[in-house]
Amino acid sequence: MASAPPLRIWLYSAALAVGMVGLCMLLRHVPGPRYDNTIAGQTKTFLDAPRPEGQWRVLALGSSLLRAATPQTASVQRADLPDIAWMRMTKGGGGIGYLQPSLATLGSRPPEMLVLEQNLFLPDNNNAIMDQLREDVWHWAKQAVSFLSAGKLASPPPYWEHNDQELAFTCNPEQRKLSASQIRQHATELQNLYRQGTFDAALINNIATLAQRGVRVVLLDVRRSLLIEQQTAQQKTDWQRHLHALLPASHNIIYISSPAFTQQDLYCDASHLNKQGARLFAPWWQSQLQQLRDGR
Q1: What is the pLDDT of residue 170?
Q2: Is there a smaller number of Cβ atoms within 10 Å at the N or the C end of the chain?
Q3: d(CA 236, CA 250)
Q4: Are 172 and 90 within 8 A, CB to CB?
Q5: For residues 257 and 120, what is the distance between their CA atoms, to the nearest angstrom?
Q6: Closest to 105 measured CA to CA, from 208, 50, 36
Q7: Is the model's pLDDT at 280 over the cut of 70?
Q8: Are the C-beta atoms of 74 and 87 separated by less than 8 Å?
Q9: 125 vs 92: CA distance, rounded Å
Q10: Do 69 and 286 contact (CB within 8 A), yes or no?
Q11: CB–CB of 278/70 below 8 Å?
Q12: Which residues, at least 6 apart from 174, have a Cβ–Cβ distance to it below 8 Å?
């Protein structure tokens, strides 16, 4: 029978693990192309860029639901809405997560309109700390391999520069084959998230302050498929009632819900719109933006 490793081996291993985590946390403060500060940098560049007189800047932050529903690139948006400058940034799952640094840049030069998908007010259903560590370890591992193989740090991969702005949502084959039990499980997970009813106080105060400063804040509900919406209706309604109480509707706080598409074939899975669904979403959303721009 093999003997257990000496106690000092366990201590050395634990110290190495703590050291690696500490190093990754320190590296987060070094300027570089990570998700959070790359998105914040893009947001600042967008808001600082000169624009034609009278053009509105619209910054949209959301989850993958918003990404799937608005796949148009910035160039397409400029052609369809010439008097609106549009920038969209998204993340996976609920919670503000690594979009927070982007939101923090709005204090000095806020946009005329901020669109926040309501999923960002949900509790983060991922482990935010571990997600950040995984991102950092993956990024620095690639940089180290590049350094050892080429003798210098390589340019960051394209995703780190462009994030979600110009990349379309990809519907994986696994998502198209969700079974009825998987859909019910997803609905149950959403019910539990809605029931938690906890809201990020700092995020709520930030949004209220921006609205007081004259920014039109649109809280957008991108609806999932009818299968999911029906199973989560009560919990979602209660959760939204709580959100309305914290951020009451006003001239500068506007609640909008997307159309309730009943056809299941407009969804990649039970939640994300596919290309057909996004094509139906686009004219409705452009009309909403134009009406808000015109003050109607």
Answers
A1: 77
A2: N
A3: 21
A4: no
A5: 15
A6: 36
A7: yes
A8: yes
A9: 10
A10: no
A11: yes
A12: none
